[in-house]
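Internal ticket #5521
Category: modeling
Description: The requester needs a full-assembly model to guide mutagenesis choices. All entity lines are attached below as received. Residue total reported by intake: 377.
Assigned to: D.W.
Attached entities:
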Amino acid sequence: MPGRSIRIARIAGIPVGVSPWWLLIVALLTWVLGAEYFPQEVPGVSPLAAYALGLASVLLLFASILAHELGHALVARAHGIAVEEIDLWLLGGVAKMSGEAKDPGVELRYALAGPAVSAVVTACFALLDVLLPEQSTATGMALIRYELLINGLILGFNLIPAFPLDGGRVLRALLWSRTGRIERATELAASVGRLCGFALIALGVLALFSAYALDGIWFALIGYFIVTAARQEMLGVEVRTAFGGVSAGEIMSRPAIVIPAGEDAQHALRDYFSRFRYSSFPVVDESDRVLGLLTMQRLESLPARALEEMKLTELIDRDPALLTGPETDVTALLSRPAFRRVGRAVVVDERSAPLGLVSVTDIERALRAQRVRASAS
Ligand SMILES: [Zn+2]
């Protein structure tokens, strides 16, 4: 989803963020629930109470989505896949992993963990619905029935066999264990996903001309999301196929233009950022060892006065994941969160001296060259 996410919490060491759209959805759902659902289900409820109930329902809904994503994240972590963050957005959530499952069994467990949590949550609300005596408050019942319905929907939606939805991941894991080839399995699962996505869009468009026009919009939106996500996954496969076995040293730009650590930020801006077309530079100490990366973004975030006062060593990004050996596989580099964040890594030799730079642009260029070669042969 577009837009940067806003950090709201940290659970089990995993940062949780929300998309700015999330606030809009909270407001919209609260309004629909407060203006229509609760006044209908709870006769005589005051408008204020109806909206408060609406808000409570929406927050519970997002807690359910978060629980679902935590299910995925904790299983991934148990299998040694690092979890970068959990993002809640328009239609649900995404647990961002750095790296992929190593075998179909892990993928299957990871894919089923989220729906398993949703199934438990749904079952809990169903149990409450059955166990609470009829004479108990209409308010409680209305709230429970809404959560029951919505969690059932989350469960059902995620089990659609449309990769990258959970159901599609299950399908991919099964294909993977059958064929033994993850690329082929991903391609097949993504094709099925794309078909499901187009089917949902078609259904949505048809519904626009019926009494269910509003549901139609949701169907089309979800379909569009699935088609886009499936295309991205296919692109990912193309990159992995193209760069399997290609090392950072083979595609890096040389030589690396470096800034001596003794420079100040003003000079760095004038002599490097204005003169060369790069948006970040490695900063080196007197013995030519890379200390970290200085990015344009960091300089832009500073007040003008700080540019004169601060040393470069205070401004650089020292994340060791931004340095890499020439033999590192490009696909491994692409899955590093630090690389995706900065879009660039410094290739260094064994004593940390700079050899070159690998950027997203370098990778794209190499991919295009590969395509031309493939079509020529
Ligand atoms: Zn899921």
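Resolution: model delivered.
Comment from assignee: The first strand starts at residue 6 and ends at 11.
Ticket closed.
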